[in-house]
Design a protein that fits this description.
The protein is built from one helix and five strands. With 100 residues, it is an alpha+beta fold. The chain has one domain (2-95). Strands 1-2-3 form a three-stranded mixed beta sheet, with no helix packed on it. The protein has one helix spanning 20-46; strands at 2-3, 6-7, 54-55, 61-63, 88-90. The N and C termini lie far apart (38 Å). Helix content is 27%, strand content 12%.
């Protein structure tokens, strides 16, 4: 997809999950697709294909909805190991963990 001089992978729609395993699988799928897009563009450039636009891909976005309205320490959102109650967070592959 190209918009305003930037080449990006096609946008993905947001999805709701109640199953953590399925959610992490979807995050992995999005992450793999976007990194593959960047690798493919880089490989094409190395093989002599000219860059006609900027190339950009993003990490998946995670929104978490909680049913609790308990107060929390907002400083926790700056800690990499924090899991709840963040409202938005970009997820990198190294952040993904499946907890039993």
């Amino acid at each position: 997809m190209r918009s305003a001089g930037v080449l990006t992978p096609r946008p993905f729609t947001t999805e709701a999950f109640s199953d953590a395993i399925a959610a992490v699988d979807r995050l992995d799928e999005i992450y793999d697709r976007n990194t593959r897009f960047l690798r493919d563009r880089f490989e094409a450039y190395i093989n002599g294909e000219p860059l006609t636009a900027r190339v950009r891909a993003t990490y998946p976005l995670v929104r978490i909805k909680t049913s609790s309205h308990a107060r929390f320490d907002s400083r926790l959102s700056r800690r990499p190991k924090c899991r709840l109650p963040l409202s938005r967070r970009s997820v990198r592959s190294r952040d993904l963990q499946v907890l039993n």
